[in-house]
Design a protein that fits this description.
elongated, ARM-type_fold, ARM-like, Leucine-rich Repeat Variant, mainly alpha, 29 helices, single chain, 1% strand, two-stranded antiparallel ribbon
Length: 565
């Protein structure tokens, strides 16, 4: 076995041992390593130290798939050797730092990372950060682990946020320390605060005000590298959903996100745009999916301003939503009154199915009322029908229509049931029924609309696109399918582009989604009546999509967003 001074350390050889790892269990580790101590201590550069230790432990090349496979096959023995050496020489910075570097390289592999994590990898790396000689290699290892880490690993690293913040405050002028900490926080803290189920106390423990403040301090530095800046922006933008108050408390942060919308980098624009959208999500006015008929009628009676009336007249008033809703409401009430007289649930079901395809508000919540002479208050009365509340008629009528058994009757029955599920917020059941209905009648667009309400974004977009190609489609269903296309494709595009890089598949897909959403938004605004309840959402999307795709090209006064442009 070569002793000190017998091996050159300056050459940058890759490790390429057998991969079995030396069995140090039955020997005195100090005897094995002590002969290398002087040589290890004289080695310059952590890259060289890591390679030296890899050769000493007879490890395979950790930069190749085959090498990592050998680690898999001999993991228990290899890890036992590394852990024994780490424990024996924990006072030797070169050995502990080098072994941490080995573990970091092993962590690139998902399975090895999880096995190392279960054996306390993170707790072994953290002490290295407070030792001057191992601070950089410890941070580099931690950055590598969190970059390739899964959710559990990143959440564990986030528990040491206070330690990482302390390093930034103790060494404000050490750019290497601050850059590595920010990259690590972007992955670790970012994973926690983007978790839908994150608890308020968890966010408080992260000390987000300090995280945001120190991140902003570092991105202002003139020598800030692009790699750190990109991670810093990701950290800032993903903080806006659950930490919106902390973000708003730093006006310069909000201004940075706004200014980044002018960036020539599409990924930067989308990341900032996503951050701004999330920033106001918790305080925005919710879009109501139900209509108050009394308020609606009061608005009609007051009349529209002249400029809005002109828009409605230019489009054809009989095709505008206001007229259609009024007409279907009248037809709905007539159908109910007729059913009181003839008790024909089949006829009522056919009428309701037709109305459902005309407007979202075809079926209103109501019932047959009469005034109680004793209390003077209106009360729901029993008129001899199998339902009291009008919306409860839908599944009952569906059963009557389905009993006829013709394909058209079956379609109408499914439409009635789907509408009932949607009104009761039982969207998954509506989508499941729609999928079964499509197997029988693939040309009914309403079925695809129901699926688009419930499905995962990609599936929802696919369903909406298919629905637009159906032969059996009404203006109302077409408008709603376009709306779903814009929302789904817009969300998919922004999500992919916030983390993608040019050349990535996700980058190309993201652009395709945004372009598709923008095209559908333009189609919606040109075809759909101006009083459609989705018009405001589509116009908002039109603005956001234009900024995302053309942000760096837009003029200072944003004239490109003018209606006439």
């Amino acid at each position: 076995m070569p002793g000190p001074g017998k091996r050159k350390t300056g050459k940058s050889k890759k490790a390429g041992g057998s991969g079995a790892g030396r069995d140090l269990s039955n020997v005195d580790i100090s005897t094995v390593l002590d002969s290398y101590i002087d040589e290890i201590n004289d080695t310059e550069g952590w890259e060289t130290v890591v390679r030296f230790l890899c050769r000493m432990f007879d490890l395979p090349d950790l930069e190749t798939r085959s090498g990592l496979t050998k680690i898999h096959n001999n993991f228990p023995q290899i890890q036992k050797n590394l852990q024994a050496a780490y424990t024996k020489y924990e006072g030797n910075a070169k050995i502990t730092g080098g072994i941490a570097g080995i573990w970091a390289r092993m962590s690139i592999d998902v399975i090895l990372r999880d096995r190392l994590f279960r054996e306390g990898l993170i707790s072994k790396m953290i002490p290295l950060l407070d030792v001057r000689a191992t601070r950089y290699v410890g941070l580099q290892a931690l950055s590598t682990v969190t970059h390739h880490g899964g959710v559990e690993v990143r959440h564990e690293i986030a528990k040491y946020t206070s330690t990482l913040l302390r390093l930034m405050e103790e060494f404000p002028d050490d750019s290497a320390v601050n850059d590595l900490v920010i990259v690590t926080l972007a992955h670790a803290v970012g994973s926690v605060i983007t978790d839908d189920n994150v608890q308020a106390h968890t966010i408080r423990e992260l000390d987000m005000p300090t995280v945001l403040r120190l991140t902003m301090v570092n991105i202002r530095k003139p020598d800030a590298p692009h790699y750190m800046l990109s991670h810093a922006l990701q950290l800032l933008s993903c903080s806006t959903l659950h930490c919106y108050r902390e973000v708003k408390a730093i006006p310069s942060l909000v201004k940075l996100l706004v200014a980044s919308l002018r960036s020539a980098d599409l990924t930067v624009r989308c990341s900032s745009l996503g951050g701004l959208v999330r920033l106001f999500h918790n305080e925005c006015e919710r879009d109501l999916h139900v209509k108050d008929p009394q308020k609606f009628m009061a608005a009609i009676q007051r009349g529209f301003p002249d400029n809005l009336s002109d828009l409605l007249m230019a489009h054809d008033p009989t095709k505008c939503d206001t007229y259609v809703i009024l007409q279907t409401s009248a037809d709905y009430q007539k159908a109910m009154m007729r059913c009181v007289q003839d008790h024909d649930l089949y006829a009522l079901g056919k009428t309701l199915a037709g109305l459902i395809l005309k407007t979202e508000f075809a079926i209103a919540e109501g019932g047959f009322q009469a005034y109680n002479e004793r209390t003077g208050q209106p009360e729901i009365m029993d008129v001899g029908l199998p339902f009291k509340m009008w919306s409860d008629s839908l599944p009952i009528c569906a059963k009557a229509v389905r009993a006829k058994g013709t394909p058209k009757d079956l379609d109408m029955a499914d439409i009635l049931d789907i509408k009932f599920f949607i009104m009761r917020q039982r969207i998954p059941e509506a989508a499941d029924l729609a999928k079964r209905a499509i197997e029988r009648s693939p040309q009914v667009a309403y079925f695809y609309y129901a699926i688009s309400l419930a499905a995962e974004l990609t599936q929802g977009l696919r369903a909406a696109k298919k629905g637009l190609k159906c032969k059996q489609i009404t203006p109302f269903v077409r408008a709603n399918l376009l709306w779903r296309c814009v929302c789904h494709a817009g969300d998919l595009g922004l999500t992919r582009l916030q983390m993608a890089a040019p050349g990535d598949t996700a980058y190309s897909e993201g652009i395709a989604f945004l372009v598709s959403a923008l095209d559908d938004a333009k189609t919606f605004t040109s075809e759909i009546p101006p009083d459609s309840r989705h018009h405001i959402n589509i116009l908002n999307w039109l603005i956001l999509l234009t900024i995302a795709l053309r942000g760096s090209e837009l003029s200072p006064d944003l004239r490109e967003l003018d209606v006439g442009s």
